[in-house]
Amino acid sequence: MIRKVFVSLICFISIISITACSFQPNNGDTIRLAEVTRSIFYAPLYVAIEKGFFEEEDLHIELTTTWGGDKTMTSLLSGGSDIALVGAETSIYVNAQEPAEPIINFAMLTQSDGTFLMARNNTADEFAWEDLKGSTFLGQRKGGMPQMTGEFVLKQNHIDPHQDLTLIQNIDFANIANAYASGTGEYVQLFEPQATMFEHQGLGSIVASFGEESGAVPYTVFMTKEGYMEENEDHIERFTRAIYKAQTWIYNASAEEVATAVAPYFDDTSTDIIADSFVRYRNQQSYAQTPVLTEEAWNNLQDIMDEAGELPERSDYNTYVNNTWAEKVINE
Questions:
Q1: Which of 36, 113, 122, 143 is placed for a possible disulfide with 86 were both Cys, Cβ 3.0 to 4.6 Å?
Q2: How many CB atoms lie under 10 A from the CB of residue 288?
Q3: Secondary structure (H, E, C), the chain
């Protein structure tokens, strides 16, 4: 399903390629950044903005939330943004269609799945994966990274997601939390801060982490078109350095300091919830500690996609991952 969406995306970009040239390369110190969603999972990015790490690199970030991998890649491919923060699987889908310019991954932000398993009727101490058999499980949309990782973890724990439980995956991403809160499903796969918020509200208990179960993957990555990278190497280097400063900072700062820094991005969420959500991610090292995207993580991602039947073809690490600037800034 998701693969078909990206095939359509490439066709769309091809159609508009004549008009897309009206988007001129950005030659100043402003970088237009498209993020796939707004999430505490992306705390290092917001820290880099709020703590002035981009400013120290003489960069101004114009941040846009594009709400979906397809929309994010449309923005990047058409020239509406310079850099995208999105799941690395989107670059695999797009590059498999041989676009005019390959999409290159150059800095990793998160290194594990960011979802948690919430149970309506039991606690972490009571939970066993076997409990899911015969249950109703409210998962993520088919072909997206959360759903692929979720199914991978279930299979690793001897649960067939399509035979051993009732799997619901036709609810739009933005409405999954509301569906669970309204009574749908005995189990649900949620990102933070929804999981912690629901636990505080007594709607269920977080019983497992898909990030801990699935291992290291380049879950959310900064990527750009090859042409932009070649024309703006200095921008990419300074951008990567700012991200690395933030990655280092969040692993040394208190939860309260981080919550205060990122609070402007979450108007409807208390700093206590932000802090608790952040600690849950940091404790399991979901936040990458450096921007380097390893070959092992890249291959693990493709194994998960392959298991889900969504991998169009194996994507060469050395072709579509460029760690030049990530390795430079961590060795300075």
A1: 36
A2: 26
A3: CHHHHHHHHHHHHHHCHHHHCCCCCCCCCEEEEEECCCCHHHHHHHHHHHCCHHHHCCCEEEEEECCCHHHHHHHHHHCCCCEEEECHHHHHHHHCCCCCCCEEEEEEEECCCCEEEEECCCCCCCCCHHHHCCCEEECCCCCCHHHHHHHHHHHHCCCCCCCCCEEECCCCHHHHHHHHHCCCCCEEEEECCHHHHHHHCCCCEEEEEHHHHHCCCCCEEEEEEHHHHHHCHHHHHHHHHHHHHHHHHHCCCCHHHHHHHHHHHCCCCCHHHHHHHHHHHHHCCCECCCCCCCHHHHHHHHHHHHHCCCCCCCCCHHHHECCHHHHHHHCC
Length of the chain (residues): 332
> Distance between terminal CA atoms of the chain?
43
Which residues lie below 8 Å from residue 193, measured CB to CB, with a gap of 6+? 40, 266, 269, 273, 274, 276, 277
When pLDDT is cut at 50, 70 and 90, the band that residue 19 belongs to is very low
How far is Cα 58 from Cα 285, in angstroms, rounded to an integer?
A: 29
Comma-separated ranges of CATH 3.40.190.10 domains in the chain: 2-112+217-330, 115-214
What pLDDT is attached to residue 27? 43
d(CA 299, CA 149): 14
What single letter denotes the amino acid at residue 37? T
CATH 3.40.190.10 fits 115-214, yes or no: yes
Task: Return d(Cα 143, Cα 260) in angstroms, integer.
Answer: 35
Lookup: tokens for 312: 């169009």
14: pLDDT strictly greater than 90: no
Instruction: Domain 2-112+217-330: give its CATH code.
Output: 3.40.190.10
- Is the distance from CB of 186 to CB of 136 less than 8 angstroms? yes
Rounded CA separation 257/254 (Å): 5
Residue-wise pLDDT for 220-240, tens only, equals 999 999 999 999 999 999 999
Residue 8 CA to chain centroid, in angstroms? Answer: 22
